[in-house]
Design a protein that fits this description.
The structure holds 3 protein chains of 3 kinds.
Chain A: H1 3-13, H2 28-64, H3 68-82, H4 86-109, H5 117-143, H6 146-154, H7 159-189, H8 201-212, H9 215-239, H10 246-258
Helix pairs in contact in A: 2-3, 2-5, 2-7, 2-8, 3-5, 4-5, 5-7, 5-10, 6-7, 7-9, 8-9
Chain B: H1 2-6, H2 8-41, H3 45-59, H4 63-76, H5 86-115, H6 119-127, H7 132-162, H8 174-185, H9 188-220
Chain C: H1 2-24, H2 33-38, H3 52-59, E1 62-66, E2 69-70, E3 74-76, E4 83-84, H4 86-99, H5 101-105, E5 111-115, H6 121-126, E6 132-133, H7 141-144, E7 148-149, E8 154-156, E9 158-163, E10 179-183, H8 187-195, E11 200-204, H9 207-215, E12 221-225, H10 226-235, E13 239-242, E14 249-251, E15 254-255, H11 262-275, H12 278-286, H13 288-291, E16 293-294, E17 303-304
Parallel strand pairs in C: 1-5, 1-6, 10-11, 10-12
Antiparallel strand pairs in C: 2-3, 3-4, 7-15, 8-14, 9-12, 9-13, 16-17
Helix pairs in contact in C: 4-11
The chains are: A mainly alpha, B mainly alpha, C alpha/beta.
């Protein structure tokens, strides 16, 4: 018996290692099945990032406002959300989602409106990520030299105009790598919506391992898929790293480490 | 918050398990992170590659997958984390998962700290006759820890929040307590509200502490 | 005199015609499948004009809300595209009862299947998208406020799932100090805790990981509604269902309110099915392979099949 045969006999003989199911992972039907889960994962991520970006922008500007009645609620929102686990927000919004949204949505969708699971998941993710992005955007804005704001107002631009044409474009350019990092985090966080029943990547894996009894292999396979996607993204964001001021970089790292969820 | 009084066992167990997981996970992450950071700066190439692989793997995969893998994946092989009680197994799987996952982030922070030390100090130590290991032990690591404490504090806060994921493999920590109370009483606002406050109690003082440390470190520089 | 005679005889003729019509269309009594089966011609059962089943018969299609991914009650076979399951076959009996001998050969020709999930069962009826819903529909007071139900055609409840070679757990009392896995957010957890407070509950977010835990011996049992356990047994034949019911889930056919005479008609079909053994045959076909028992009717406790 060759060493290769001996090793494969030892490996396949181990209870729990299901060599007989390995062929599945290259089977086109199964690959497509996982692909559907991956598509759901990516759709969740994109929707969450877009929503979080919009909300995060609002809260970032609110946080920087000179008016206390805007600033303090923003601070309260950001610091409270950041201090909570994402999973808590996802589960809670799933339970309360229909109650909250039915009155708003019933004119359009009828009295029996039920918040679809997909959107309950997106909302939970967005709620959390918006607070993180708000801080990242704020760090970007604050990292710009004071001269920028002063020059803008000297040129006669209003607050809104200077934000729109001078400050935000520069701040956002600085923030691109940080935001791509956050996208990676969001993609990983979508795994959490599997607990409320959304059929994203992990849940598809669950269907497979319940049928073929190969949890070990399925978890590894799913991990590899996540790795490939997230690694590619993080490499891309490293390429895009523009020379940002040190304080901004440090602040970003601090935000990302503190809010780093699964 | 009367609901806390209605289910004292659930919430107390939940709080206690969350604290335990946070502490054990943090200590484990520090140990793992230090080892991996040393791998990454070591002069031996295979160790360096192992370090890089470790960090990239855990940073680009979800914690949820790791928890399930450690519990049901290794469980398929018969591994139960050296205990016969399933509840012990899931707790240990969660603690190990927290340590391994956050260890990757800790490793990067410590590595950054190690690399940030003035080369001159290392040369001075070497010229005084200290070996690689001794230089590490008496010159680099102490300074590294001081510089890295604030970011490590931030990872710790993330870790506290991430203990909530242990509920997915059955650990009766704080979020699980909320889930159980909600499914029994349907009072979701009260159940999750109470747990929300408890998480704030855990993380906000820690955040303030880290903020204070950050400022102190800046002054020390 | 003559005109009175004419009038009386005219009345008599009209009365005779009416009596003949009413006698012939005596509602559900003549609609029994056995009568239709024994009729030599393609006899359609006769219904009262006002009844809902008459309007269905005229339309030519019975619209039914059913599940498409539930073993063993309502499943759409991906290979053939046909619906299968206990609920589905009961529906086919209703079709035969409405459309007669023609339907006996191919009931699906007269049925339009409307896939439903738990949340859409009532809306589908209220929006008149289906004539009836046969989808593991538990009868309870809250629902009775919104829709009508037929009599109970299937009765289930919470039971216990263990590995096939397990001999120690036979009932809820045997769960003392045993690890029981169930899903969060369901009444299953509460029921087990109520019946045996010494059971150690492992709570996960769904049943697949519970099944794996059972297989690996990390859980001693899984407990939830029998119907969910059926699906688990189907996935892993190396398990079995044990114990008596410790909760009660009666299933009925859901019908929108205001359907004239329809519910009594359905009740009659169901009663006939139980009486002449068709119900038991369906139970044997769909349920026994996963439950391991045989029942003679929805209220029968059941006895081991082998």
């Amino acid at each position: 018996m060759s060493p290769f045969d001996a090793i494969s006999a030892a490996v396949c003989g181990t209870p729990g290692i299901r060599c007989d199911t390995w062929h599945l992972f290259v089977d086109p039907t199964i690959i497509r099945f996982f692909g559907e889960g991956l598509r759901e994962t990516l759709m969740l991520s994109v929707a969450a990032v877009l929503l979080s970006f919009a909300a995060g922008m609002l809260f970032a500007l609110g946080r920087l406002s000179t008016r206390a009645w805007i600033r303090w609620p923003s601070i309260l929102y950001i610091e409270t959300i950041r201090a909570l686990p994402v999973l808590l927000l996802i589960v809670y919004l799933h339970i309360k989602g229909t109650t909250i949204f039915r009155p708003i949505m019933s004119p359009f969708f009828g009295e029996d409106f039920d918040l679809p699971l997909f959107w309950a998941g997106v909302l939970g993710l967005s709620l959390y990520t918006s607070a993180v992005l708000a801080e990242i955007i704020r760090a970007g804005i604050q990292a710009l030299p004071r001269g920028q704001t002063e020059a803008a107002s000297a040129l006669g631009l209003s607050y809104v105009q200077s934000m729109r044409f001078v400050i935000l474009p520069q701040a956002l350019r600085l923030m691109v790598p940080a935001m791509m990092g956050q996208l990676t985090t969001v993609i990983k966080d979508t795994s959490l919506v599997s607990t409320i029943g959304v059929f994203e990547l992990i849940r598809q894996g669950r269907v497979i391992y319940t049928q073929y009894f190969n949890p070990l292999e399925v978890f590894l396979y799913v991990a590899v898929i996540y790795f490939v996607i997230c690694f590619a993204l993080s490499q891309a964001s490293r390429r895009l790293e523009i020379r940002a001021p040190l304080e901004a970089k440090v602040k970003i790292q601090e935000i990302q480490l503190r809010d780093q969820v699964a | 918050m009367g609901i806390l009084g209605e289910f004292p066992d659930l919430f107390l167990t939940g709080l206690w398990l969350t604290v335990q997981l946070s502490i054990l996970g943090s200590i484990g992450a520090l140990v793992v992170g230090t080892v991996i950071a040393l791998f990454r700066v070591s002069p031996i190439p295979p160790l360096r590659w192992l370090g890089v692989a470790y960090v990239e793997f855990f940073r680009n995969t979800p914690l949820l997958v790791h928890l399930f893998f450690l519990w049901l994946g290794l469980g398929a092989l018969g591994f139960r984390f050296w205990t016969t009680d399933t509840f012990g197994t899931i707790f240990r799987a969660a603690a190990v998962g927290m340590a391994l996952y956050h260890g990757a982030y800790v490793a990067e922070v410590i590595r950054g700290g190690l690399l940030g030390i003035d080369k001159g100090q290392i040369e001075a130590a070497r010229s005084l006759g200290l070996s690689f290991v001794q230089t590490l032990r008496y010159v680099q690591l102490p300074q590294t820890f001081r510089a890295t404490v604030p970011p490590l504090g931030n990872i710790g806060i993330a870790l506290i929040k991430n203990t909530s994921l242990a509920s997915t493999i059955g650990v009766a920590e704080l979020l699980q307590a909320a889930d159980i109370v909600e499914s029994r009483t349907f009072r979701s606002d009260e159940a999750y509200g109470a747990v929300l406050l408890l998480y704030l109690v855990l993380t906000i003082p820690a955040s303030l502490g880290v903020n204070w440390l950050e400022r102190k470190m800046l002054i020390a520089r | 005199m003559r005109s009175i005679l004419v009038r009386v005889s005219a009345l008599g003729v009209i009365a005779a015609v009416l009596v003949a019509a009413c006698g012939g269309g005596g509602g559900s009594t003549t609609a029994s499948p056995s009568a239709a089966a024994s009729a030599t011609a393609a006899a359609k059962p006769k219904f009262e004009l006002a009844s809902y089943q008459y309007s269905i018969q005229t339309k030519g299609k019975l619209r039914v809300g059913t599940r498409e991914d539930n073993i063993p009650f309502g499943l759409k076979n991906p290979a053939t595209g046909k619906f299968e399951g206990f609920d589905v076959d009961v529906v086919r009996e209703f079709a035969i009862a409405i459309f007669g001998a023609e339907a006996k050969a191919d009931p699906d020709k007269f049925i339009e299947f409307v896939p439903v999930v738990s949340a859409t069962r009532i809306p589908t009826l209220k929006d008149n998208k289906a004539d009836m819903v046969a989808a593991t529909f538990t009868v309870n007071d809250e629902r009775l406020k919104e829709i009508d139900f037929s009599t109970v055609y299937f009765r289930t409840g919470q039971k216990i799932l263990v590995k096939k070679d397990n001999t120690t757990i036979k009932s809820v009392a045997d769960l003392k100090d045993k690890t029981v896995c169930t899903a969060k957010g369901s009444t299953s957890e509460k029921n087990v805790a109520a019946k045996n407070k010494d059971a150690k509950l492992l709570l996960l977010d769904s049943y697949p990981p519970c099944l794996i835990a059972l297989q690996q011996g990390q859980a001693d049992a899984v407990s939830t509604d029998e119907t969910i356990l059926f699906g688990l047994v189907k996935q892993d034949p190396n398990t079995k269902i044990v114990g008596d019911y410790f909760s009660d889930e009666p299933y009925g056919i859901g019908v929108a309110k205001g359907r004239v005479q329809f519910v009594p008609f359905l009740n009659k079909v169901i009663a006939d099915m139980i009486a002449d053994g068709r119900w038991t045959a369906l139970y044997k076909k769909h349920i026994t392979p996963v439950s391991g028992d045989i029942k003679d009717g929805p209220h029968d406790k059941g006895r081991p099949s082998s």
